[in-house]
Description:
With 628 residues, chain A is α/β, with parallel strands linked by helices. Helices cover 38% and strands 17% of the residues of chain A. In chain A, the strands form six sheets. A six-stranded parallel beta sheet of chain A has the order 3-2-4-5-7-6. In chain A, strands 9-11-10-12-13 form a five-stranded mixed beta sheet, with helices on both faces. A five-stranded parallel beta sheet of chain A has the order 14-15-16-18-17, with helices on both faces.
Amino acid sequence: MTRKLLTGNEALALGALHAGIRVAAGYPGTPSTGALEHLLAVAPPEVHVEWSVNEKVALEIAAGAAWAGQRALCTMKMSGLNVASDSLYSVAYSGVVGGLVVYVADDPGVSAGMCEQDSRGFALLADLPLLDPPSVPDAYRLTRLAFDLSEAVGTPVLVRLTTAIAHSSAPVEVGEPLGLPPREPQLLRDIARFTKAGAAICMQQHRDLIARLERAGEWIREAGLNIIALGHRGGLGIIAGGVPVSYLDEGLQFLAPYGLDPEAVSVLRVLAPHPFPDQEVRRLLEHVGVVLVLEELEPHLERSVYVAAQQAGFAGRIVGKLDGTLPRVGEYDVRHVVQGIAKALGLALPADLFTADEGPERLAAPRPITVCPGCPHRGTFIALQRAIRRSGYRRDQVMVTGDIGCTILGMNPPFEVVWNEVAMGASIGLAQGYVHAGVQTPVIATIGDSTFFHAGIPALINAVQYEVPLTVIVMDNGWTAMTGMQFNPGTDAALQPSGNRRVDLARLIPALGVDHFFEVDPFDLDGTTAVIQRALTLPGVKVILARQECAIQAGRRGLRAGRVQVVPEHCNLCRVCILQTGCPAIELGTEAIHIDPALCYGCGLCAQVCQRGAILRAERTFSETGRG
Amino acid sequence: MYDVYLIGVGGQGLLTIGEVLAEAATRLGMPVHLYPYKGMAQRGGLVRAQLRLGREAAGPNIPPRGADLVLAMEVSEALRAVRFLKPGGEFLLYGEQWLPTAVMLGKAPYPSLEAVLDAVRTAGGHPLYLPPDGCPVDEGGPLPANIYVLGAAVGRTRLGGYIPPEAVEEVLRGWRAAERNLAAFRAGLAAKP
């Protein structure tokens, strides 16, 4: 055992590695990304680790490896589980041979701008066991165990973290790798198990699935994953799952001065919420007079506690979300523990216990985020604004659907061209719906490269098949950028792990049969504007590939797009450069604007919007490295 | 038990402060939990982190009025952390200003330093102000401001009673630019906020 400071994602990755995985596949998504990134950094060469094109493909790869008898890990955020769910639901029916663990990260409090989906609900839907580590060390320990559970029962196992565990760091006692002997791959031909050939087979698989879940419950009980500690008979019983478990001690200490006797409290810490720990909950219900259920997001445990209470004839109160005491939205902290206990026991607490003056926060300057200095999307958004205007439309007359990733920043000032955000690849489908709805003005879809690979391609094929007149702008910066720069199929092969091949969007998109295909350089504002304007007048499916590498990634290799220089005597502080580009590298000086050389990438967009020749752009010199 | 709330903007190296403290605590054998908020953080975006020292089972979030120390690296963002300060707690403010575009264009107000310090006093806290021009400069340019601020926090607040300077220096010595970071840290230790 060695004690190491690890993030929850790293701990989970190491747990899987030490359990002997042979394959790991995932798709980047905050807050899950760090797990596979850690494996890419530390896994030995005999372990295949990959960023797959989307979560469904990743799950199928991991499942294939597990069917061949190897241990495999699949990683994704909660939105990705929805994408992978079709295959996962089906794999659950078949079960697995080697251990298959699916890591899904939920995001209560929405640090990454998506939904507060509670993936424990998927475990319920798919009849799969789910482990819910409440701390960083538990992420390591339970992930290791999840592989044993998976193989003991023959089922995929879900391990769920939330942002507060996935991103947090804490010391972890890291054990030795399991030292699993290398396994020869097996080829099992078993139609009754690995196909869905007919109702009889499918219903037998369903029975087997339910039986496996039952056995998983027994395994979890024997492993003692759900921990019960009984206090005085007839007192308070707390059933806690997920991160709220980590606030219990703090809450009990907090309430000691207000008349709480910690000895009177019984606690059930639920680390494996599905299948529901029926026996432990019943034991608690037989012992206590009132129950408090603590869990973030949906009342999954709590609903099952009501059922157990009915079955056990429990007559006491159940405090939680369903009686309105605790919220279903946002992260929990010690306040929720304190409020819940106070409600359950009728403790009188000072009203202002946690109430702080929110006045100071209201004085803070708003800080909307925009694209980075040198971001090629800036050029595309400005060109899009101009093309709409020059085509004779107002901005509120042209639907521009948006997609997931950095490209969604087109909704923010100063661009404000993008209207909506749904899910990976959804921009192209939504756009077709607007056309079919009878919208007479041009409809435009905007989507990033990785998002297009992930789920945009089928939607574009659909538009081609039905000859839907629309313009798709694929904003290709060569990286999956928003999640922290992962490579994707379109990334330069030299910048991917060796042996990978690049899939060139400039060859792929025309091959889909689109009516018009254009490639533009988003740092060339006039050229990009003219192409978008032209596309808006053409019939059929038009795709514009706006291609320029992410400035952050290019900058890390010492590349710059060029150099710009302010001519102070020409600058009249009209602020057009700041208003139109919103570039964080431009500052307002007293005599002239100032461009921070440490931030500037030399994209030259400011020089192109300046009408007074106050910003000069040197020839773009991509071969130039590390200058300036 | 000692809770630290850190706040600033992307690009200042705020999260690194938390990581150094968490690593130092781990090497001291002290329980520690560091919860960074980085969501879509990028240069100029809001960044915060919560560091909880000395709790065997530490929940990630510090409740309002719970932090023994707030460490703020940007004047306006500091206001968002005032409500997390425990009455009687210390509030170390490094006075850097990152003006959002709307402020630069004169379309939005920006709070005065005095307003921030007043808010800290009203919340029952002890403000410690660290001027941004105090960070030393050597032939390679300004020393890393985040490590300078870390030095001031360890040297001038009760944090030093939990994480002594030597423990931080041991972590910094393992870094690539160890000498410059150690110089920044020591300058911070000696700073007089």
